[in-house]
Design goal:
Layout (H helix, E strand, L loop, with lengths): L2 H8 L11 E5 L2 E4 L4 E4 L2 H4 L8 H13 L10 H14 L3 E5 L2 H20 L5 E5 L8 H6 L16 E4 L4 H7 L4 E6 L2 E2 L5 E2 L2 H14 L2 E5 L13 H5 L5 E4 L10 E5 L20 H14 L4 H16 L5 E7 L2 E6 L4 H10 L2 E2 L1 E3 L2 E4 L7 H15 L2
Parallel strand pairs: 3-15, 5-6, 5-7, 7-10, 10-11
Antiparallel strand pairs: 1-2, 2-3, 4-12, 8-9, 11-12, 13-14, 14-17, 16-17
Helix pairs in contact: 3-10, 4-10, 11-13
Length: 388
């Protein structure tokens, strides 16, 4: 029995997997069990921010494994303290709660928003506005928050208390921002929704209107955060700081993690007994996270990310089949004129390039550390497919 047969016999069929068995990886390339090499333009859906098995990152994680791999949150660890300090200092937030995924980080944010409002205003002010075409996770509550009807099936009843507003529609926002709302939750770039960045005017309106009514703003930066958009947080590009920001994916470079950051306003909302996570703040994840942050916040790192993004866009601008390019930084969506995005991804896999899709677009989320020559090589493969 080969690997794929064994896998399919024992693992639930919840993903449309490609017939690729990854054996090992180094830098921005991985190798399958047959020895074929691939350039990675997907980074595990934006998770392997430093590529495969980055040496300094691996040393930090392995060193922590040999020191202490886990302790309950009834105790303290130095690595969690150091990582929390680095994360809060770098982002300008006051406190952080650590979980294990983006969905968990968003669940935490939802709980904080509702408890903040309950503590201050009592019952009845619990609704959270999310945007049409958003994606916030696969737990029942974060699926309920997700503004895509395609996900709202099978698992009834869904969690109540979420209202959808059309992205970039300020009038729709004003109409639905009533006295039952405690927070607005949004992605600055809707990743799973098609790599679509919000208009600055709409973002400004969200902050202005919410500020007038003491309604919290939650920024879901699970995919956009930690350098992906060319800034440490995508909110920095909009000149805004949310009351609550959630992070995951690329934060720990491939180790499961989630983080919910709050400013002073919400820093004391959660108290003992109101939230928790067995594995949240796990020492191994914190070691990986600190290694990523040390690199991403290093001098010139984000300048290089933006230079790479500009290079990709300049190449794509010369490809006739690429109708338009969306996104920010190294979070890129390519709308095609005539070809099917899924077909393009399959052809790229055959030729040694890992790509992603987002709805009807080809999606690029290369490791932040990818080199220009690797970008050029991968883009040449993509170009050859699009020009066929």
């Amino acid at each position: 029995m080969n690997t794929i047969e064994k896998f399919n016999q024992h693992v639930m069929n919840t993903y449309g997997r490609f017939p690729l068995v990854m054996e090992n990886g180094s830098g921005r390339r991985c190798t399958d069990e047959n020895g074929k090499s691939y350039i990675d333009f997907g980074s595990g859906i934006g998770t392997n921010s430093l590529g495969f098995c980055d040496e300094k990152w691996a040393d930090a994680v392995c060193g922590q494994v040999r020191a202490i791999q886990h302790t309950s949150n009834y105790y303290y660890t130095k690595i969690q303290a150091d990582f929390a300090e680095k994360l809060c200092t770098s982002t300008g937030y006051s406190k952080v709660f650590f979980g294990n995924s983006g969905a968990e980080a968003n669940e935490c944010a939802i709980k904080i928003a509702r408890k903040y409002s309950f503590d201050k205003y009592g019952k009845g002010r619990h609704n959270i506005i999310t945007l049409v075409n958003s994606f916030h996770g696969r737990t029942l509550t974060t699926l309920s928050a997700t503004g895509q009807e395609v996900f709202h099936n099978y698992f009834f009843p869904f969690t109540e208390g979420f209202v959808n507003v059309i992205a970039n529609d300020i009038d729709d926002l004003k109409e639905k921002l009533d006295d039952t709302v405690c927070a607005v939750m949004m992605e600055y770039v809707q990743g799973e929704g098609g790599v679509i960045a919000l208009d600055k005017e709409f973002v400004d309106a969200v902050y202005t209107l919410c500020g007038e009514r003491d309604i919290l703003v939650i920024a879901d930066e699970v995919q956009t955060g930690i350098g992906r958009t060319g800034s440490l947080l995508a909110g920095d590009l909009y000149g805004r700081k949310a009351d609550i920001t959630t992070l995951a994916k690329g934060l720990a470079g491939g180790v499961p993690i989630g983080a919910c950051l709050t400013g002073e306003k919400c820093s004391t909302v959660l108290v003992p007994g109101t939230h928790g996570s067995t594995f949240g703040g796990n020492p191994i994840a914190c070691a990986g996270g600190k290694a990523v942050l040390d690199r991403v916040t290093g001098e010139g790192f984000l300048d290089e990310v933006n230079a790479k993004a500009d290079f990709i866009k300049s190449v794509l601008a010369e490809i006739d089949e690429a109708e338009s390019v969306s996104g920010l930084g190294l979070m890129i969506g390519i709308k095609l004129k005539s070809k099917n995005a899924a077909d393009v991804v399959k052809k790229a896999l055959d030729r040694g390039l890992l790509l992603l899709t987002a709805k009807d677009k080809v999606r690029l989320l290369p490791p932040l550390t990818i080199e220009m020559n690797e970008l050029e090589e991968g883009l040449n493969i993509l170009k050859s497919i699009l020009e066929e």
